[in-house]
Amino acid sequence: MPERPLLLFPTPEVTSKSNLGGGGGRPHLPTHYRQGERLAPKFTQLQEAVRARNIEIQQAVTGIDPEQVLVMETIGSVEDFANAVKRIDGFEWMGEFEIDEIGPDQDFFDEKHPEKELSGRLYMVMTNQRALDEMLSMWRRYTDQEDPKQKFDGGLTKFRDVFLRLKDIRRWDVKDRLLETGVIDAWKEDLEHDGGRLIRFEVELWFRNSEEKRSQSSAIVASLIQQLGGHVLAESLHEGIAYHGILAELPANAIQAVVDNPNTELVKCDSVMFFRPVGQMLAGEGLLEDEAVYSDLEEHSLPDGEPVIAVFDGLPLANHRLLNGRLIVDDPDNVESTYNANERVHGTSMASLIVHGDLNDGLRPLGRPVYVRPIMQPIPNDFRAPRREHIPDDVLLVDLIHRSVKRLFEGDGSEGPVAPSVRVINLSIGDPYRQFLQSMSPVARLLDWLSLTYGVLFIVSAGNQSDAIQLGISRTEFESSDPQEQETAVVKALFSDARNRKLLSPAESINGLTVGSVQYDSSHFGAVNNRFNPFLQFLPSPVSAFGSGYRRAIKPDIVFPGGRVLYQEDLRSSRRDNYVIKPVEPSIRNTPPGNKSAIPARQSGSLEGIAYSCGTSNAAALMSRAAGICYDSLQQIFEEQAAEVDARIHEAPLLKAMLVHGCAWGDVGAQVGDLLRTPENNRQLSGLVSRWMGYGVPQVNRVLDCTEQRATLLGFGQLSDGEAHVFRLPLPPSLGARPEWRRLTVTMAWLSPISAGTQKYRTASLWFEVGGVVPAKDRKESCSGTDGWRAVRRGTVQHEVFEGQRAEPFIDGDVIEIKVNCREDAGKIHNPVAYGLAVSLEVAEGLDIAVYNEIRTRIAPAIQIQQATDQGRG
Question: In terms of domain of life, where is this protein from (predicted)?
């Protein structure tokens, strides 16, 4: 037990929620006459296109009522439009996306800032001809009437509101099914490398409300695939995430025909939402250099107890000297039969980082075993040696992860749960063909659903973006600059290309903890040929993917040292006036820099190989290790201070809050902000910085114990819609009269249920407010600026830092009040939502202000009174 352990808050006071403020600028909207004039050609085109497509469908399939998906793009949003859609027979709500970066024009613009980009919605509605005719009738009524505010009968007035904001209307077409997913590029690559084999892919169907419609959609798509000489290999349905997917394969000549001309019956099929590649989640390039040998192994006792951390990754070399006896490898799919020993690269490295941390740092191994479920395997026909690892293409990833998690907590077939003690699942994989743009990927939706269902925290890598960096200056100019100027050039180039360096699925998961990488490790290395480190400071890695997350929530959540990436000139792309640099390959090497971890040896029989690597996978693995350490600390706190409390439902939210609670930007956030500052973005700088850094770099040691000058308290609870809890933190009296620097840090996390078919998506909105007597009032870092306080409330973790230096007048008995509120967001909250809270108050180390002791002596009596009250009720 540490000398000054974290403290638990007394049971909070129950009250009603506060009103949630907010609201942004108002867009200028055209008149209904102007809308009629502007959109008349689009409605005419829509009518003609729908009728033509209906004729095609009826000629191909007899006895069917043709249905197509309409896409309505609006500026801003219309609340509860889905309810109006459901009132029209023949309409079926398919979902909605939030869209950003819409350029203003003469009809739609921000009234206060006309040059500002706008946000809006894409509404998707399945329609037959009868329902479309009814909507067209409403449209004509809207444009013809004198009073644009006249209501529509039958609860359909929301259509009037959509017409007012309507920017475009069209059919969901071939471009939509292929463009966002990267499937065409993946198919071209498959055809180039192995044009004679069957090519597998995923078909994501529109999720229909009725089982009959789902069966009909599946049968239509299967028939079209068979007509092209292909087969359906698997089908997956998951109502909780509104997912209906098919795994299929087609001969190469059929794929080539689609690449040459996408307007085929299969691609035009109106049951299809997206086509996606499969088997594209690669794990590094394999070890392309001879490994080093680890000779510094200090003997430690083997772990005991139940596993808390699970790793879904490649198969590790479990008998490696660094891992032997420390892993529980569960391989129900017999993935081991596909691997050679020297190909177990990624899983071995991730397991090593979780068990031992970065071997550069000489840390003690975890005291619990780590559960490993291999979900990757070598690419069968890979030309490299060792072969690269990937998610196999004979399974839908949604199914694979669902089965893997269900096996942990419920079992598989007749077998019972294999590791129900797991609270954290590490997922250091990302789909390079699925950058997060506007819609939640099926896998991210699944992680969100699983996390709440089983009370488990997914720690997910943000994804590596290893494309070359175009600096926009000559090589001579770059090399003649000092290192600080070079760093500035690289940072500005990264931000200017941020839209092409976004999070990789499933990093957009709202309940997961998304981890980016910091360009740091503690290895020692000298200059090597033409390779260089572009950053002097403790900055995020140049390969670490950019946020934001869904609905502009802060993502990545945190960044953590994932090893230094070296760069060199990209000779193929550089031009005289545009110096281009790229990461040095391979990503796994036998020399520093990088995080040092166990690795399979190229030489058969050797079990002591180590190598250096870098990237967001490493950062996520190291954060999973930190979560395991926090879990043991949390258990100890409850055993010592609240042994009677069953904290199981709160463990994942508390772990999430603890991992974020120690986060800070430090000086780096301000320096990055200064590099990016312009007169136009000055008030939004915190949002720009958080897209790269999230809430910052966690100092995990700060949530394992306290100091004389810093007290950290944990709280937890469950809330339903309209409810709130108030926690009270006693103020240390000796601080009141002192004009000393002080900081208040508050972090709250929860796992939200989801409403997969809605734009809001997050069913439960929780947020805290700080009241009472507040000794530090200046918002800092991610919660600063005009929009910072809103941004930190958009996800499922809210982290705010307040600082001050004024002597605040307060007396013994005064308290800081932390009010945690809950309201429904995207749908009904059917069960209370569990949350975890961490609050720290601190002054500068060394000051003669006993913050910890003064708070502890005032919080203890409140806990004792609460315990006595509870016993009396019992």
Answer: Bacteria
Give burial (CB, 10 Å; 0-12/13-18/19+) of 649.
middle
| Nearest-angstrom CA–CA distance, 236 and 545 | 30
pTM of the model: 0.95
d(C-alpha 653, C-alpha 180), whole Å: 33
Alpha carbon 858 to its chain's center = 39
Place of tokens 């921000």: 110
Listing from the earlier edge strand, what are the strands of the sheet with 815-824? 13-16, 723-730, 815-824, 764-772
Residue ranges and CATH numbers for the domains of the chain are 7-22+706-873 (no CATH), 31-172 (no CATH), 194-278 (3.30.70.80), 286-634 (3.40.50.200)
pLDDT at 865: 52
| Number of helical H runs and strand E runs in the chain | 20, 41
CA dist 358 and 356 (Å) reads: 6
Residue 138: what pLDDT? Answer: 93
Q: Is 874's pLDDT higher than 80?
A: no
- 3 state DSSP class of 709: coil
* Contact indicator for 277, 247 with CB cutoff of 8 Å: no
Neighbours of 257 (CB within 10 A): 15
- Asked if 127 contacts 171 with a C-beta cutoff of 8 angstroms, the reply is no
Residue 15 CB neighbours (<10 A) = 12
Count of alpha carbons within 13 angstroms of residue 272, beta-carbon side: 27
For residues 678-695, one letter each, b for 16 or more C-beta atoms within 10 angstroms of the residue's C-beta and e for the rest, the string is eeeeeeebbbbbbbbbbb
